[in-house]
Amino acid sequence: MDNKSAIDLAKHPASHGRSKHIETRFHFICDQVCSGKLNIKHCTSELQLADLFTKAFRTKRFRWLRDTIGIVNVKDNLT
Length: 79
Known about the structure:
Elements: H1 4-11, H2 24-34, H3 59-68
């Protein structure tokens, strides 16, 4: 997760009285964290590979993300 508030909420749900509106899937994740079955760590924005699909980037950053997740140009591989 790259949101420190989400990490804190998952680790300490009792300290957030305004979290009652959160969906069931969050509570499932929270239960898994509290029981020790799931460990949540902060991931910096620079390492969020899924951002490739949701944000616009300059060419250098776009190419790094694309190459990191293994997307290749099919035309280049047909030779």
